[in-house]
Structures are given as C-alpha cells and as structure tokens.
C-alpha cells in the first residue's frame, strides 16, 4: 500500500530526492480516489524498482494541495528529480499510468 505522507515527509521523500515519484493527491471521501487505490497498488508492484508512489490527503495537507494547485481529486503529479513533470487528473487505467511512469523512468 502506498504510504500517506505529510508536508515534512513530502520535502524529504519528493523534493529532495532523485528519480521518478508519483504523488496521488486524494481525499478519503472521494469515490474515484478509492477506485484508484488498487490500480496504484498494481502499478507500484510492477514498477517497484523504478518508481516510488506516495499519497497526500488533501484534507490533512491543505497547504500542499494549494501549493500544487489541486482543484479536484484524484490528481496525480509525477515528479522527476524533485520537479513536477506531469499532472494527471481523474481516474486512470493501470496501462496509462505504467506507460507514463516508464517514459519518465527511462
């Protein structure tokens, strides 16, 4: 299961790290977010050697959600070497996510 991180962990694990990271901005009350969770689990298993996946609860980390302009959930941000390289809004299929992450992971 993808780890839910807060602002401090976000800085350490995302902004100050090398490589490709997917952040899932979600809410516990969001139906599509709940549907996305098992998809992200499958993706994390498939790409465990290439990509890290973390979750940010927008209700618990409102400052992060605001900073990254999260207007709806789920919103996923792909980071490479601490920088946002792509934003994906809405429920996505495993294949789409794997293709996008493989593109950035090389």
From TrEMBL:
<feature type="site" description="Contributes to redox potential value">
    <location>
        <position position="31"/>
    </location>
</feature>
<dbReference type="InterPro" id="IPR005746">
    <property type="entry name" value="Thioredoxin"/>
</dbReference>
<keyword id="KW-0249">Electron transport</keyword>
<feature type="site" description="Deprotonates C-terminal active site Cys">
    <location>
        <position position="24"/>
    </location>
</feature>
<comment type="similarity">
    <text>Belongs to the thioredoxin family.</text>
</comment>
<feature type="disulfide bond" description="Redox-active">
    <location>
        <begin position="30"/>
        <end position="33"/>
    </location>
</feature>
<dbReference type="InterPro" id="IPR013766">
    <property type="entry name" value="Thioredoxin_domain"/>
</dbReference>
<dbReference type="InterPro" id="IPR017937">
    <property type="entry name" value="Thioredoxin_CS"/>
</dbReference>
<keyword id="KW-0676">Redox-active center</keyword>
<dbReference type="GO" id="GO:0015035">
    <property type="term" value="F:protein-disulfide reductase activity"/>
</dbReference>
<keyword id="KW-1015">Disulfide bond</keyword>
<dbReference type="Pfam" id="PF00085">
    <property type="entry name" value="Thioredoxin"/>
</dbReference>
<feature type="active site" description="Nucleophile">
    <location>
        <position position="30"/>
    </location>
</feature>
<feature type="domain" description="Thioredoxin">
    <location>
        <begin position="1"/>
        <end position="106"/>
    </location>
</feature>
<feature type="active site" description="Nucleophile">
    <location>
        <position position="33"/>
    </location>
</feature>
<dbReference type="InterPro" id="IPR036249">
    <property type="entry name" value="Thioredoxin-like_sf"/>
</dbReference>
<protein>
    <recommendedName>
        <fullName>Thioredoxin</fullName>
    </recommendedName>
</protein>
<dbReference type="GO" id="GO:0045454">
    <property type="term" value="P:cell redox homeostasis"/>
</dbReference>
<dbReference type="GO" id="GO:0005829">
    <property type="term" value="C:cytosol"/>
</dbReference>
<feature type="site" description="Contributes to redox potential value">
    <location>
        <position position="32"/>
    </location>
</feature>
<keyword id="KW-0813">Transport</keyword>
């Amino acid at each position: 299961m993808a780890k839910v991180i807060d602002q401090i962990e976000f800085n350490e694990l995302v902004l100050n790290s090398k490589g490709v990271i997917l952040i899932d901005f979600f809410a516990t009350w969001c139906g599509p977010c709940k549907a996305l969770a098992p998809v992200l689990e499958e993706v994390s298993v498939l790409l465990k050697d290439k990509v890290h996946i973390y979750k940010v609860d927008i209700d618990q980390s409102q400052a992060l959600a605001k900073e990254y302009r999260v207007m709806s959930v789920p919103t996923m941000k792909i980071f490479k070497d601490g920088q946002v390289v792509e934003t994906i809004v809405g429920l996505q299929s495993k294949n789409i996510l794997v293709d996008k992450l493989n593109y950035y992971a090389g």
